[in-house]
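Researcher: Structure prediction, please.
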Amino acid sequence: MLRAHNLTKLYGATRVLDGVSLTLDRGETLGLVGESGSGKSTLARVLLRLIEPTSGSLSYTPVADATTADDVTQPARTLDLLRLPPARLRRLRRSLAIVFQDPYAALDPRMTVREVLSEPFAVHRESPPEGVAARLNALLAEVGLEPSALGRYPHQFSGGQRQRINIARALALRPELLVLDEPVSALDVSVGAQVINLLRDLQTRHGLTCLFISHSMPLVRYLCDRVAVLQHGRIVETGSWREVCDHPTHAYTQQLIAATPELPTVSA
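Model: Predicted structure follows.
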């Protein structure tokens, strides 16, 4: 589905990404793990073309290509994301979603939950087949919140509940690819465990394709099919979660595993 080759990102003389190559196949969850400052969030934003790489190539094969000017769905074909015209990229964005790290900063405090969840439909000028109201109620149910949440504001929710709202917003347009950028690092351990179990349930229920970014090896072991380890902007180790988490070969991977305790699993 997603193929990156030799991606590089420079900020002045600082090389934040240094020749990153990775693949993400349909229906799998790839864990991208590394300590703070390793380039994980920069890579996520480059993959979604929220920021532009300095060099490298990036391709994406959607389930179906609805990026033509008349929006007629065509058989899927591989798209060069770095050469996609702005209008076509905008249409493709309905298939790409991200959940950010900070559940507090990611929500506009002046918007109700109804406005937050309705915004993707307004931006992309879409109306779900079942109607917006029904879709919003279904989204809240998916993340374990009551319909009464629709009329409330972000400050009226806990951190874990806010992140559930962010997840619901990301799922609004039924994306093909979901990027989760350290979605529980700002939450306490028990609340974070509940959110992780929610994400695992959503993966199973919808067959989501996910890029899960974390600094915690136990988390990627729990959620991911494959793991890529990023150090100073370079991928230093890749493999299945069992290969990387149970039998790490790189010293940096071994340090990451030793530095993070197991996360308790709590029913979502």
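Model: The longest helix spans residues 189-206.
Researcher: Thanks, that helps.
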